[in-house]
C-alpha cells in the first residue's frame, strides 16, 4: 500500500490510526493485568510497537512498561534484534531479519527500508573511500 496514491491510501492517517490502536491495546493490557488477566497476544503487539518506533529512540522507554515474561518472548526479542541492527547501521542483519520474519513484521520494517538503504550506502562509501586512500 505504500506505493498507492495518497487519494487511495494516506500513510500519515494510517500511521496515526495504527498508533492510536496500539496505545489503546497497551491500556487494555494494563487494565486486564490489574484484574489478573494476561493476554496471549500481548508480546506480538508489544513487538509491533517497538518496531514502529525504530527512528524515535523510544525503545528503552517502551521496555519499562513491558512485563518480564513478555520481554522474554520470541516476538519482543526479534523486535529488539531488529532495532539494534537498525540503530547500529548493521544493514546486512536488518535486511536478513526482514527476510526471515513474519509478514506483518516485515511490513512494519518496510517503512524504514529507504533509511536502511541510505545507511548502507553511507557505510559502503566510507569503507571504499578509506580503502582508496590507503
TrEMBL record:
Belongs to the SAC3 family. Residues 10-134 form the PCI domain. This is MCM3-associated protein. Gene3D superfamilies: 1.25.40.990. It comes from the Eukaryota. GO terms for biological process: mRNA export from nucleus. It comes from Stegodyphus mimosarum (African social velvet spider). GO terms for cellular component: cytoplasm; transcription export complex 2.
Amino acid at each position: 500500500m505504500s506505493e498507492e496514491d495518497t487519494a487511495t491510501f494516506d500513510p500519515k492517517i494510517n500511521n496515526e490510526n495504527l498508533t492510536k490502536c496500539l496505545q489503546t491495546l497497551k491500556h487494555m493490557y494494563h487494565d486486564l493485568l490489574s484484574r489478573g488477566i494476561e493476554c496471549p497476544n500481548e508480546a506480538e503487539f508489544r513487538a509491533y510497537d517497538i518496531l514502529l518506533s525504530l527512528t524515535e529512540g523510544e525503545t528503552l522507554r517502551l521496555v519499562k512498561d513491558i512485563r518480564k515474561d513478555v520481554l522474554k518472548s520470541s516476538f519482543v526479542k526479534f523486535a529488539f534484534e531488529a532495532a539494534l541492527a537498525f540503530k547500529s547501521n548493521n544493514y546486512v542483519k536488518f535486511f536478513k531479519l526482514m527476510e526471515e520474519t513474519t509478514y506483518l513484521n516485515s511490513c512494519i520494517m518496510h517503512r524504514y527500508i529507504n533509511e536502511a538503504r541510505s545507511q548502507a550506502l553511507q557505510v559502503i562509501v566510507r569503507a571504499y573511500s578509506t580503502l582508496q586512500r590507503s
